[in-house]
From TrEMBL:
The keyword tRNA processing does not apply. Residues 205-385 form the EngA-type G domain. It comes from Urochloa decumbens. Keywords: GTP-binding, Nucleotide-binding, Repeat, Ribosome biogenesis. One of its GO terms (biological process) is ribosome biogenesis. One of its GO terms (molecular function) is GTP binding. It comes from the Eukaryota. It holds the Pfam family MMR_HSR1. This is GTPase Der. The keyword Repeat applies. GTPase that plays an essential role in the late steps of ribosome biogenesis. Belongs to the TRAFAC class TrmE-Era-EngA-EngB-Septin-like GTPase superfamily. EngA (Der) GTPase family. HAMAP family: GTPase_Der (MF_00195). NCBIfam families: GTPase_EngA, small_GTP.
Amino acid sequence: MLVNPRCSTVLLGYVNHQGNRAIVVDEPGVTRDRLYGRSYWGDQEFMVIDTGGVITLSKSQAGVMEELAVTTTVGMDGIPLATREAAIARMPSMIEKQAVAAVEEAAVILFVVDGQAGIVAADIEISDWLRRNYSEKCVILAVNKCESPQKGQMQALDFWSLGFSPLPISAIIGTGTGDLLDLVCLELKKTEGLDGIEEEENKVPAIAFVGRPNVGKSSILNALVGEDRTIVSPVSGTTRDAIDTEFTAADGEKYKLIDTAGIRPRAAVISAGSTTGSLSVKRAFRAIRRSDVVALVIEAMACITEQDYKVAERIEKEGKACVIVVNKWDTIPNKNHESTTHYEQDVREKLRILDWAPIVYCSATNGTSVEKIISAAALVEKERSRRLGTSILNQVVREAIAFKPPPRTRGGKRGCVYCTTQAAVGPPTFVLFVNDAKLFSDTYRRYMEKKLRSDAGFPGTPIRLLWRSRR
Ligand code: GDP
């Protein structure tokens, strides 16, 4: 599977007729069902989510989508609501919200038209919408129902006026579908750079330093980088802008360090007239989005606040790896082993949502343990992009079920897991194909996540378990 660098949890691909198709039900709140499937083309393997149609198509076109089952790529974590709502506001009425969400995050958009019907008004509207809003994305225009090669070329020619190069295909007899797949693969690779794997290997992990003002984010960065790269001041909120710094660790590994402005308590944000304060909150959230790992900095002597918790929630929601950094450790008097244990208990209690994140205790002032933040970040970043072998994964799940089977419902039904696959990395995302997702309670789902963590690791990164009913 290729991973789109612009979208951390994106599934790419194509379900072809011969590929394994597994039909699954949708997440609550999503209007359409999706198809998940593993597919191959040449030496490329793809995991796919089919949104069940990019657009609300006319009946014949919907049929084509069924036949061809071509998909856009779909991220599993949400896109910014504002972006989505703006896009929804711009979209023509016939395009579904669900489709907008898919197109927003897609690496390649496949726009299927009916070659026998010729251009219809909906095609023009959709192509205008795509060109207006998604000019930076690759749109492949597939002209279906072009059964005859010669006639098909002529049929496809008509569609040039939509502004994309038309590719004649026939979903029923397979004409042109190989070329279409080649093109899809090529375009997917392009979005990854020339070679997706190489790109992945060369990608410099980004570590965002976030936390309330004055906890010592800039001081930590200065201690790491070894120069006064941002103004450090005892006045709360002095460092306002997010600053990116290239950093080479002692072992030669490169990182991008993202320094953010302090996150003010909400009250302060409101009283500050929502200028610099609210901007800095937004910047911090943006920095989290841009990052692979978040170093959540808290101050040893200060309490963990609601604001810290909100940031923690955001980190989890965005699926980012995390290291909790307890700075100003030098200010704790008479430290011993117990102070660390005691402090850790407090942090775990108050930041339960990040119970998987390692804690680093450091002092930016005297430089103690600051480099541990980088080594911890490197570790959690690896975990976030780790792929677990299918057989190991299934073994872990099988053993978890054997140890504690899902309880029977009152009606005597019992949940049953057929198979499990890792659908994505960044964060690791597992799809459990089951008889009926409703038969697995929240408690059982939490148990399974815990089991997966205890048996297969993944420290420092959120993991996602998706339960899909087979129909
Ligand atoms: P930021 O707003 O989170 O970027 O915090 P700064 O880096 O600007 O630091 C705020 C204040 O805390 C400055 O006066 C720093 O000298 C001080 N400070 C930062 N790190 C430490 C530390 O490890 N120990 C102590 N004692 N003071 C620190």
